[in-house]
């Protein structure tokens, strides 16, 4: 059995988190300006942690990733390399909030030598990448979507991010003092419970997923997965979607939500633009863990603890 200890609270003081369910179009500069206005609105509502959706500065789709991709490395990039980096940094700084900046397509260009060794040619690799900034506008963490969205449901939806994107390979934990630690992952990553479990056992008080489910999987799984990750790990979960746009190529489900450690939905958007604000309270995590003491009842003599051993993680 797991040992019985009394860990210190993972969320050290209550904090308001906002999911900004954003309408984005094809004009990147307009998307960034609009995001800035909505982050301001979230901050004015008292949020100290603000979350934007997956691909908040572009339409979502494999055809769009290369044309919207920005160069983030070496960090910090120039304004020309990544206008989104600079816009997100300014949004965090201007509003004095932690900003989990949804995701943007990232371009990494590497120079490779051809097999003949005669000349070099650039190789382009694309990622779906989330940037987290602190209230001074400093970059705290970069998460590259680990599990690419490759699905095929006949007659409904086929999507293959791996046709264009490469997967990230590290779990991302970010310290947000004075509150505590969150995990950041992106959309399809929410379907992989191991990732969430490792993050929670490594002290995350919230699992934050910018995401963009669709009209097939959204109604079936979006809320279910948010509640499942919360109840499995007895922590908060935030899922932040783009607003639905039926004129776009990809129809996002919307329904951004925040779930508490007992799997109760604290706030949920509809389909359109909305800012969902919820107060996260460390006592709720401790109450859930005390009342249903899973952490003391685990049977690591029967199955392994996935959070132990070699995990590729960016620890803060
Ligand atoms: N868009 C995603 O990455 C995931 C998704 O829509 C789903 O899992 O369903």
From TrEMBL:
Cellular component terms (Gene Ontology): mitochondrion
UniProt xrefs under Gene3D superfamilies: Carbon-nitrogen hydrolase
Pfam families: CN_hydrolase
Stored PROSITE patterns: CN_HYDROLASE, UPF0012
Entry superkingdom: Eukaryota
CDD domains: nit
Residue spans crossing the bilayer: none
GO terms of molecular function: omega-amidase activity
Boundaries of every CN hydrolase domain copy: 15-282
Family matches, as InterPro entries: C-N_Hydrolase, C-N_Hydrolase_sf, Nit1/2_C-N_Hydrolase, UPF0012_CS
One Gene Ontology term from the biological process aspect of the record: glutamine metabolic process
Keyword set, alphabetical order: Hydrolase
Family: Belongs to the carbon-nitrogen hydrolase superfamily. NIT1/NIT2 family.
PANTHER family: NITRILASE-RELATED (PTHR23088), OMEGA-AMIDASE NIT2 (PTHR23088:SF30)
Protein name, as recorded: CN hydrolase domain-containing protein
Organism encoding this protein: Staphylotrichum longicolle
